[in-house]
Amino acid sequence: MRDVMHYSVAGDIAVFGIDNPPVNGLSQAVRAGLQAAFQRALEDTTVDAIVIHSCTGSFSAGADIAEFASGNFNTQPELPALLEAIEASPKLVIAAIDGMALGGGLELALACDYRIAASAAKLGLPEVSLGILPGAGGTQRLPRLADPATALEMIVSGRPVTAQAASEAGFVDRLHTADTPLLDAAVSYARELLAANAPRLSCSEMLIDTAALPADFFTDRRLEAARRQRGFQAPQRCIDAVEAACTLPFADGLARERALFAQCVTSPQARAQQHVFFAERAAARIPGVGADTPPRDIARVAVIGAGTMGGGIAMNFINAGIPTVLLDLSEESLQRGLDAIRNNYAISVSKGRLDASRVEQCLGLLQATTQYADIADADLVIEAVFERLDIKQNVFRTLDEVCKPGAILASNTSTLDLDAIAAVTSRPQDVIGLHFFSPANVMRLLEVVRGARTAPDVIASAQKVARRIGKLPVVVGVCFGFVGNRMLEPYGREAMRMLLEGASPAQIDRVLTDFGLAMGLCSMSDLAGIDVSYLTRQGNRAAIAHDPGYGFIGDRLYEKGHYGQKTGQGFYLYAGRQRSENPEVEEIAATAAAELGIARREISEEEILERCLFPLVNEGARILEEGIACRASDCDLIYVNGYGFPAWRGGPMHYADETGLDVILAGMQHYRDQLGEYGAMWFEPAPLLERLVAEGGTFRDFDRGAEIDKR
User: Fold this and answer.
1) Residues 6 or more apart from 432 whose CB is under 8 A from it?
2) Peptide bond preceding 439: is omega within 30 degrees of 0, i.e. cis?
3) Helix (H) or strand (E) holding 548
4) Crossing angle of helices 605-626/505-515, nearest 10°?
5) Which of 133, 118, 128, 117 is nearest to 159 (CA)?
6) How far apart are the C-alpha atoms of 638 and 437, rounded to whole Å?
């Protein structure tokens, strides 16, 4: 078994080296090693000071998150008690911080007397993103070493700060900017402190000056967190903990932090957020694509289509420093696209997110053209034209002729058959789907669609370039709508059907947002464009023709030219930023219900929620069964990052596991029977759902990539 803690002595300085790659997680073995090293140094009368550093190039990314999932995070020695012992050390303790000091890693550094940090280091307490709070003294020590407002912002947001910012805030004592090794500088710093007879500094002896805080500081921060982090419980508990630091003695504050941590760590929200954390890592493991698969070099990109989506896609690449050609056959459309890109950058500059020089650098990487000959040397070409199969096939025929051998040909299609697109080329192995979500320059999710003949190195290349441009790639298979839009179909179908049955758009949207979704279905349709959903239905008419009420209201609004926000009228009426209910929707619904023989009634909030979410989950089960998604957590990632599903519920499949698959199955059966012919048409449970319930299983257990995860 390899050593995760190295002990050495440099004269009168004991040096502890943490060696637990890749991120120096503070696992039980590291904690035990640290405890043993600390005791050894205390017993050595020749040692006057201790330096704790990293052997891996990064101080520590904190607790071993797998221990939270397994419940082993409190195995002995526990981090809080260990840090209290280090803080009480009669010998000076100095933390040498390089790379990242996050979570428990920063808490370890805060328990030391002094901190020296490399100028490139980042320091933070990101526990809130896992549904918990710093539980080893971070909420009590940071407000004492920095000011309470800075500490609260770091803890509630979870965002790391630079070493320079940490130095200015007061919790880094020295910045290391020289070319010499940080460890050498830390040992020299320790000797300097000893020579100056520097005092031991214990947070337990420090008072917090709250005089500069407004009277309503914590109340206002709670309201702000409730607005900005709607539905999340951990930010509120973080505020409670920092408030305790400001109002209680240190020991009592630590006890309060510990109690709040215990509330969070066993909560459904913590399970959900940690599920999403692990899901991101699992998504990188793709069946048939080994970690050693060499990706193709992508040095130059081309985007076909200068519309809203094409322009947004192009921005991703120039933002990442990749030269990009934007092609549109219409000079007018091309100019509109360029103007939209410049306007997006202008907004970012006006809000202080970018400076003008950075914008000029990005725009300098963008070339506009109406000639296919100008993309002949592109390594990756992304088609983002109108969502119609014949149009996309024509584009790919041209790309097949003009693009160099080995170029990756990608379609941004959101629903269409990628294999039918690849079939018109002589190189289907080079064709892949890259489904960006709108707005493409903002949304993090990228569905990577794997065709029947897509080569493994093309998938590896897509994964790599996606991460390079800041996207979260999730590999999916070919079917109508892939994973995201296919699961959206029954969710949207039921919302639209309940309008016919008597619900209002406002009622449906309120139920969904109260559940935690970022936006209700009717509001989302108005934002995305009723014309977009109508045209999507047109491409899938054969599958829905047997239901005469399918999308009825949306079809009628489309026929009237009411496309939502872009026309000022859709499921709602829009006047500037004001929104009101559109009485025409109720008129259309009542008339249609009479024509179709649909009885109208009062619909409960419970029914609205179940009829939207249970079919969504059921469709996810069918997708898993067909192998369109590799694992249930992939479906969750897509919904959390692309469709506004609350991360604190973990995604629809995790939500189903938490709710109980037997509850989901019983609900599907109930509506199948209650809704008569319509129920029989749309509420048949997926065989996988039935099987998992019979076996006592969960979606979490269903993983076609499990053999990869075990490697």
Assistant:
1) 408, 409, 410, 411, 418, 448, 449, 450, 451, 454, 458, 459, 462
2) yes
3) none
4) 70
5) 128
6) 10
Task: Give yes or no: residues 124 and 184 share one domain.
Answer: yes
Cβ proximity of 183 and 192 under 8 Å: no
387, 418, 424, 537, 539 from 542: Cα distances, Å: 17, 18, 23, 9, 8
Q: Which residue has the tokens 């010499």?
A: 180
Contacts of 136 by beta carbon, 8 Å cutoff, 6+ apart? 79, 80, 83, 104, 107, 108
Q: Determine the angle formed by the axes of helices 484-501 and 521-528, rounding to 10 degrees.
A: 120
Query: How does strand 13-18 pair with strand 5-10?
Result: antiparallel
Q: Identify whether the C-beta of residue 86 lies closer than 8 Å to the C-beta of residue 114.
A: no
Name which of 272, 269, 266 is nearest 232 in CA terms: 269
Same domain, 72 and 220: yes
Q: What is the pLDDT of residues 28-58, one digit of tens each?
A: 999 999 999 999 999 999 999 999 999 999 9
Q: Which residue has the tokens 């999403």?
A: 276
Gap between the Cα atoms of 10 and 550, Å rounded: 76
Task: Check pLDDT > 70 for residue 705.
Answer: no
* Residue among 418, 433, 639, 680 nearest 547 (CA): 680
Residues 16, 138, single domain; the answer is yes
Place of tokens 């029954």: 490
Domain contains 509: no
Residues 493 and 573 in one domain: yes
Domain ranges, residue 68: 5-266
**Are residues 120 and 26 part of one domain?**
yes
Summarised one tens digit per residue, pLDDT across range 133-192 is 999 999 999 999 999 999 999 999 999 999 999 999 999 999 999 999 999 999 999 999
Q: How confident is the model at residue 240 (pLDDT cuts 50, 70, 90)?
A: very high
Which of 221, 242, 266 delimits the end of a domain?
Answer: 266
Tell me, yes or no, whether 469 and 489 share the same domain.
Answer: no
pLDDT over threshold 70, residue 709: no
Q: What angle is formed at CA 86 by the lines to CA 114 and CA 76, rounded to 5 degrees?
A: 140
- The answer to whether position 643 is within a domain reads no
The radius of gyration computed from the CA coordinates of the chain, to the nearest angstrom, equals 28
Cα 490 to Cα 496: distance, rounded to the nearest angstrom: 10
pLDDT value of position 29:
94
User: In sequence order, what are the beta bridge partners of 17?
Assistant: 6, 53
Residue 146: count other Cβ atoms within 10 Å of its Cβ. Answer: 22
Q: How many Å apart are CA 116 and CA 197, to the nearest integer?
A: 18
Active site residues: 107, 127
d(CA 552, CA 589): 8
Eight-class DSSP state of 179: S
700 part of a folded domain: no
What is the DSSP secondary structure assignment for residue 299, as one 8-state letter?
-
Cα distance from N-terminal residue to C-terminal residue, the chain: 19
Inside any domain, residue 709:
no
Phi-psi region of 134 (alpha: psi -120 to 50; beta: other; left: phi over 0): beta
* Residues 6 or more apart whose Cβ sits within 8 Å of residue 390: none
Helix (H) or strand (E) segment spanning residue 348: helix 331-350
CA dist 457 and 460 (Å) reads 5
Give the total number of structural domains in the chain. Answer: 3
Identity of the amino acid at 378: A
CB 328 within 8 A of CB 305: yes
Q: Are residues 460 and 489 in the same domain?
A: no
Partner residues linked to 579 by β-bridges: 574
Each residue of 71-106: pLDDT tens digit? 677 789 999 999 999 999 999 999 999 999 999 999
> Do residues 137 and 84 lie in contact, with contact meaning Cβ atoms separated by under 8 Å?
yes
Taking a C-beta distance cutoff of 8 angstroms, is the pair 448, 475 a contact? yes
261 in Cβ contact with 238 (< 8 Å): no
**Domain final position from 576, 600, 624:** 600
Note the helical H segments in 518-568: 521-528, 530-538, 541-544, 552-559
